[in-house]
Specification:
By secondary structure, the chain is of the alpha+beta class. It has three helices and five strands. The chain starts with a helix and ends with a helix. Pfam families: YajC.
């Protein structure tokens, strides 16, 4: 046998071992996740349905998708835990104090906020959606 053939086989065996160990680790993490499901957690199923865990009974999980709408799923169908959205801090508008004067008047429009063209040449002509269909009348 050729020595290079043995090296290729050894590299293939090592790669196969490393890939299978990663898969086993991912399977253990998924199993641990599903075993630790608790009521109140928001989850997503493998089919994409979002719900809140109501009850865990053995291999069955009861999810509530909307208030009062419960369905029973097997644990293997739960794909992942959904984290609640993080509130992003809104940037403080430095000009906010300048706009206070116009806000006090009801119906007032802030200065410089509306751009009205001086002429009507840039506007599109009105569409005649209610008129007869010209394609049908030509046939």
């Amino acid at each position: 046998m050729d020595f290079s053939f043995l090296i290729i086989l050894a590299i293939g065996a090592v790669a196969l071992f490393l890939m299978s160990s990663r898969q086993r680790k991912a399977q253990r993490e998924q199993l641990s996740f599903r075993d630790n499901l608790q009521p109140g957690q928001r989850v997503m199923t493998g089919s994409g349905m979002y719900g809140t865990v109501v009850e865990v009974d053995g291999d069955e999980v009861t999810l509530e998708s909307t208030p009062g709408n419960e369905s029973v799923w097997i644990k293997a169908a739960i794909a992942r835990l959904v984290e609640p959205p993080v509130d992003e801090e809104t940037e403080v508008d430095e000009d906010a104090e300048d706009d206070v004067e116009w806000r006090d008047e009801p119906g007032a429009i802030p200065p410089g906020r509306i751009d009205v063209p001086d002429d009507l040449s840039s506007l599109q002509p009105p569409r005649d959606d209610e008129g007869p269909d010209t394609k049908k009348s030509q046939q």
